[in-house]
Structure formats: structure tokens, C-alpha cells
Amino acid sequence: MTTRDVVFPAGRQELYERNRYSPAIRSNGFLFVSGQVGSREDGSPEPDLEKQVHRAFDNLNAILAPAGCTFDDVVDVTVFIVDPEEKFERIWNGVVPEHWGNAPYPTVTAVGVTWLYGFEFEIKVIAKLPEASGN
């Protein structure tokens, strides 16, 4: 079996080890990022919806950066939203454009869910690694 090439954001490795998953794995020229939520440093949810979405993107960027990526390198996005009928417009048209960048945009799948461990929003991405990384 191949050893996984894991990417950890600064200062949060203990949180991922406690929850028993990798924040991101480099493989075959891509970075596969686990779902990121709007968690505070201790792992608890940010209570305000808009702030929670901003924090989810901050947490995502904290994983992309050590791999040499930005959101511009993201090719595929999956978002999970609790109660999307009520919250989708606030999230998608209110907060997401601040983090999304310019066209052409990545592919997107949006999924409505009933539970996210106390969170309202989660974002999972696949990014193309920079060519210079050799992956």
C-alpha cells in the first residue's frame, strides 16, 4: 500500500488526529480536501451562518496554501447545506462570491442535508496541484 501524502493546516493537526481523518491528500497531481466547516480553533461551530461560511472558506484556504494551491486551482466543489431552501440564497449569493474568484468556475454539486454535526455548511473540494510539485 502507498503511504498517503497528507497535508495539514498549521496549528490544527491535533483536531484532525482526534477526529481520525486527513484534512487533505495529494494524489496523482490533485489535492483531495476533506469537507471543511466553519469551526473555530477548538473545533466548535461558529454560530452565525455568514461567519460560519466565511470561516469554512478560511479553513479550506488554510489547507490549500500548504499544498501550494489557491481557490483558483479548485476544479470540483461539493457543498452541503442544512435547510438549503432557507439558507441557499444567503450563502450562495451573499458569502460565496467573496471567496469564489472569477470565471471560469469549478464544477459544483450542492446537497441539502439534515445534519452536519452542529454546522450549517460544509465545503469539499478537489484542486489541481501546481505543476512544479511533481505530482
Automatic annotation (TrEMBL):
UniProt-recorded Gene Ontology molecular function terms: deaminase activity
InterPro entries in the record: RutC-like_sf (IPR035959), YjgF/YER057c/UK114 (IPR006175), YjgH-like (IPR038743)
GO CC terms, sorted: cytosol
CDD domains for the chain: YjgH_like
Name the UniProt record assigns to this protein: RutC family protein YjgH
Pfam families the UniProt entry points to: Ribonuc_L-PSP
